[in-house]
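Dataset card, provenance and construction

Sequences and ligand SMILES were collected as paired inputs. For each pair, a complete structure of the chain with the small molecule in place was predicted and serialized as structure tokens. The example below shows a pair involving fe (ii) ion. Curators did not alter the output after generation; any descriptive sentences attached to a record were derived from the structure itself.
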Amino acid sequence: MTLIRRCAELIDIHETADNAWAATGPVHSRTEFIAWAPSLWHALAQGRKSMNGRGFLVLKGTHVEQSEDGVAQLISLFISTAFGTPTRTDKKLQRFAWPVRYESTGYRSPTFSQTMAEAAFHTDSQYLDEPERYFGLFCVASDVQGKGTNFLVSRSRIVEKLNESHPAALQALKSPFPFRVPAVFTAGASDEDVEVVWAPIISEGLIRFRRDTIMAALALPGVAVGDNQLAAIHALEQAISEAPSLTHHLEPGEAIIVDNHLMLHARSPFSDSKRLLYRVRMKEQNSGTNTEQGGLADPGQKPWDIMEDLR
Ligand SMILES: [Fe+2]
């Protein structure tokens, strides 16, 4: 049985991808996936290995752009199990595959995935005690080249830059900073829920950053950091802008899997409200240490084409 046919069957039974995924469970899903599509699993396992030291992987031919919503979400979830265990991204709706598209939410603090604006360099779920190790963006519909384009920069290159130009800032970035949890991800999914997590921006094998959630936390009464820490954020942003970055414009059917501990990512603004990605975040299956060997792939590296294996 192909993965796509199995996903369609599961949607017939459970109606939504979230229900199907919750009913099947991550361990069983992985076992079933290996049984249905061993060659695809093997290809993805090779892809995962190739991420060590690279920080990301582009997949082609996922078929999510040709599939009905629930099936596309399930395909995204099954592919993601080759990298880690998919997590529920928000506390209220508890979704596994989060639609990244323009939403008119009315929140005073919407998250990047709900707007069409530029998303500056950040770590996903930087407001969690333990941000997920990986995330995948599965593209159903894209805007034109240059709009909604992704950028990546690696922790190791940023640290190199800071070591050269601002070693004191690098030390300050290892002290705790406050991150305000965006409204949609709080327990009550409301602006009235104030949740703040404190964590270093740079720690062993992990970079955690998002300017606006730090600034939102610092605007709260009683939340403050030292002047040296504020200066360190400025130095960090300078280092990010000077470090080499990689650009990828996701086309329909493509996916990008990113090591969220080793890479910061950004997105240019877009204007097509039909742009749609499914995002899956994955926690690591086995605890392991991050390998950083440069952390940025050769930009000429070919995307991993999984089309043949999916059919
Ligand atoms: Fe993000």
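Derived descriptions for this record:
The chain is about 30% helix and 20% strand.
Confidence is low (pLDDT under 50) at residues 287-303, 305-311.
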